[in-house]
């Protein structure tokens, strides 16, 4: 396991997952395994994966998230600065996504089960629980956004009905996930492409007003915000790329599909926001205000279910790392009901940016430690990682992960309020005590990736001995 092989990955999976996976069903109509210890069918080619990640890169949330790029800490970015932040942030995040995709294909295991090899089974439960919380949060947010889009589309209506309908569709998709991905490739990707092209042309015809007093100040925080959106999919990637036919198709499918669509989504969102004075609450109305815009907006609202599908399904995959003998169909139905219920109750998403910051702080350094140890550390040993249920604890990789988390928080602490306000206060005191304060050249995402990657690389002689 010394390099990323471009050749097809045949079943059974590589030796690193041999202690975990037993041969399952194969064939073009095979579905995802029901239990954790069953080898996945290798049915996804480049087009399947590129279409899947292209769909995930376009979202109603992405249009609104453009506001986090145009205005940073109360200051407007210039259009060139904002565009550059979107491209750079997306490319960096997509590279991390592509690496995680390759590891999923090489191991044949779900994302959180892969962490058994990095930390040992019991220590893998910590990032697993964090990922469950993340996926549940995103799932609730996605159902809420779908309901908001449907409310705009139909000019009103009961919020609860839209949430229930979106939750039901989401849950049905998770029962046959590979079938859902096939539908996304054959039909949804084309419809989404046409909708995006329509809105791009119509919005550009109206002109692009420049933000007042725009500058490059805040460029790196804006880039970090874009990376955080991309990185939220890194702990999910292997849940899908474990079904890929080759490492080449998994990397390039994830990288090209997600990069292209997220940049396009942010650009359309930025243009729409500039036209409404950067008021994200009015962005959906902008789409509906275009002649025949409701038709294409309906496409975007309907396809938003692939976002909630990915989050609910990956929540189930994460839970299976804790409960490996529970049928994933049971888990997805229960989790779909839970996410739907929470979406009916939760209405305040005012701390969305803080949520993104915490996601980045946890998973950016984790992806660095994961990649370095897989390709240069214990993953290079004969037999590779131990992904079995009895994989022994590995303390050492926890050190660079914790260090990377601290670096991220010192540069860009999550600004939480209410019961969690003490968290923000702690890191503010830490900044003052260590004389570390954000500068124009500091990037939380890049620094918190580089530092743990370097530390993990320096520790590789010990990591190869399984410590």
Automatic annotation (TrEMBL):
Transmembrane segments: 52-75, 81-104, 125-147, 159-175, 187-204, 216-238, 250-277, 283-302, 330-349, 355-377, 398-420, 440-463
Chief localisation class: membrane
InterPro entries reported in the protein's UniProt record: CodB, Pur-cyt_permease
Bilayer topology term: Multi-pass membrane protein
Compartment(s) of residence: Membrane
PANTHER family listed in its UniProt record: CYTOSINE PERMEASE, CYTOSINE TRANSPORTER CODB
Family: Belongs to the purine-cytosine permease (2.A.39) family.
Protein name from the UniProt record: Cytosine permease
Species in which this protein is naturally found: Streptacidiphilus cavernicola
Lineage: Bacteria, Bacillati, Actinomycetota, Actinomycetes, Kitasatosporales
